[in-house]
Design brief:
globular; alpha+beta; 13 helices; Creatine Kinase, Chain A, domain 2; 9-stranded mixed sheet; 2 domains; Ubiquitin-like (UB roll); 6-stranded mixed sheet
Length: about 450
């Protein structure tokens, strides 16, 4: 597991001088997980670290109303990194920021603060939360229509220039920024690729996902192509997921490991799974926040549809990958619903909260599924208590509105803003006449 880098103010200022940094991009996320930011000159970095940099919060989705718009961005020294795809002379660096009000109080609508608050609560209970991410995406010829770059398939090693070169360059750039990559490969769908980010602490992982998404798009654009994290850009192909592997550690030990269990999974791990299973439908609005997200969560395309768990089986929402002998850290829980267009700070927050609710209230997990849940009859699934994930954004909104967990995890400000934003999106979608409706109904009705 990769340890979080510890950089202080003096390190950042010295490294900035050594690497000829002239501009620093200050990054943060809006409630939807879109990367926002602005650049300052390196000469102003010391002041920014001490006092923050002011900006208009009312211009950022979900941040603030017009009459309470003043915000300050405080760069986090631990996130300083030079952007390797930019020139080395007059270099550009980036730092993620904590957003605060003018009185320096944390802004409760900042997604990074939401995750930090939940991690601090976890630390008070004696745990740390770690995550690894499988990030899937498509390389396309443009953003105008989903025209593929290659016709390769899962793990294919045939040269698919420029896609294979782009993936290679992305891995090298990520590692140069201190973001190790465990695997990279071609995914199942044509022109679909995957980059797996090495396991690390949850805050670093959320920052790493935000960085990786930008870097992948930037390098693609430099080569005249388009990288998309749209969950389902092509109707006849698999969609893109962001499978998240999770574990809890306490006292340096993996809390999910039990050497005496048949599957090496502890009671704590089983209760964490039980929490994910019980709360999965209501947190799906966060892990799958777009209208298009629910075009991916359908049967037949390797995405979860039902709320079930198993050992190893990849058709279930939650799975426990096989134990690697001699490595206690290999026991982890994989949650397969999220897509790569979610807000990683909020997604990690709600998954952590759901799992911890299972631990705190000692939920009993249902039995793991044996065989394919997709091949079961509806009656069989019902007898096993297997529910479905929401089938549309509208259904996800309804379940989120009924949730007691989400306001607690996200805070009232962010929860209300997210609901309002998603309700607007759903109503806009419902009012649009699609090409399917025209071709299906206009000739006959």
């Amino acid at each position: 597991m990769v340890e979080q880098r510890v950089h202080d103010r003096e390190y950042v200022l010295e490294e900035s001088r050594k690497q000829d940094v002239k501009f620093v991009r200050l990054w943060f996320s809006d409630i939807l997980g879109k990367l926002k930011g602005f650049a300052i000159k390196a000469d102003d970095l010391a002041d920014a670290l001490e006092h923050g940099v002011g900006f208009d919060g009312s211009a950022i989705e979900g941040f603030a109303r017009s009459y309470e718009n003043d915000m300050r961005a405080f760069p986090d020294p631990a996130t300083f990194s030079v952007l390797p795809w930019r020139p080395r002379h007059n270099a550009v660096a980036r730092m993620f920021c904590d957003i605060r009000r003018p009185n320096r109080e944390p802004f409760r609508g900042d997604p990074r603060y939401v995750l930090k608050r939940n991690l601090n609560k976890l630390a008070d209970m004696g745990y740390t939360y770690n995550a690894g991410v499988e990030l899937e995406f498509f390389y396309l010829k443009s953003s105008e229509r989903p025209e593929i770059l290659d016709r390769d398939g899962y793990f294919d090693q045939l040269s698919s220039h420029p896609a294979s070169d782009l993936r290679r360059d992305t891995v090298l750039n990520l590692e140069e920024m201190g973001i190790p990559v465990k695997y990279s490969h071609h995914e199942a769908a044509q022109s679909q690729h995957e980059i797996d980010l090495q396991y690390t602490d949850a805050m670093s992982m959320a920052d790493n996902v935000m960085t990786a998404r930008l870097l992948i798009k930037e390098l693609a654009q430099l080569q005249g192509v388009y990288a998309s994290f749209m969950p389902k850009p092509i109707s006849s192909s698999n969609g893109s997921g962001m499978h998240i592997h999770q574990s809890l550690f306490t006292g340096g030990k993996n809390a999910f490991f039990d050497g005496d269990d048949e599957h090496y999974l502890s009671v704590t791990g089983r209760r964490f799974i039980a929490g994910l299973i019980r709360h999965a439908p209501e947190i799906t609005l966060v892990t799958n926040q777009w209208v298009n997200s629910y075009k991916r969560l359908v049967a037949g395309y390797e995405a979860p549809v039902f709320v079930s768990w198993s050992h190893v089986n990849r058709s279930d929402l939650v799975r426990v990958p096989s134990y690697k002998p001699g490595y206690e850290t290999s026991i982890r829980v994989e949650y397969r619903a999220p897509d790569p267009a979610c807000n990683p700070y909020l997604a990690l927050s709600v998954m952590l909260a759901a799992g911890m609710k299972g631990i705190e209230e000692e939920y009993a997990p249902p039995p793991p599924v044996v065989g394919s849940v997709f091949e079961m009859s509806p009656q069989r699934r019902q007898s096993l208590g297997i529910r479905s994930l929401p089938s549309s954004l509208g259904e996800a909104i309804t379940l989120a509105e009924q949730s007691e967990l989400l306001p607690e995890v996200l805070g009232d400000h962010l929860f209300t803003s997210l609901l309002r934003n998603k309700e607007i999106e759903w109503e806009e979608y419902r009012s649009i006449i699609t090409d399917y409706e025209i071709s299906r109904y206009l000739p006959d009705l």
